[in-house]
């Protein structure tokens, strides 16, 4: 089984959980981010060369530091920062630009879909207790999960991205 397929299968429940909890509670739970990172340790060692594994861990740590600094200045949510940092080691370095590209478009789509859904009473009534319906801020975990779902499913089923 390839690393891409392994990562896709393992990440799937986390992606749906993060999207749901962020929509419902406007919160990404720390246990989930810790579990994601903890899962990468044995999985990464099993399916990646040691050099790639170490490099991905270092990049994940750098992403964590940079995004937490942004969170300190309220430019980014701390839960979203931890979630992206926990997902980063699962992404191959050559795919960082593709993931960011997908994330940008997914954010736009997710914002539009969320705003439309919350303005339709019939949809809001399906989940009346979701905090994201009334929140001024956007549940970014929903968009991050959508981007990651697209990215990892594409990698698992089709292979590397060819941008440029």
Automatic annotation (TrEMBL):
Give me the segments passing through the membrane.
31-50, 57-76, 96-117, 138-157
**Classification via Gene3D superfamilies:** 1.20.120.1220
Where do the Prepilin type IV endopeptidase peptidase domain residues begin and end? 10-110
What is the top-level taxon of the source organism?
Answer: Bacteria
Identify the keywords attached in UniProt to this record, alphabetized. Answer: Membrane, Transmembrane, Transmembrane helix
**One GO MF term:** aspartic-type endopeptidase activity
Identify the InterPro entries for this entry: Prepilin_IV_endopep_pep
Per the record, its GO cellular-component terms are: membrane
The name this protein carries in UniProt is Prepilin type IV endopeptidase peptidase domain-containing protein
Q: Which organism is it from?
A: Algicella marina
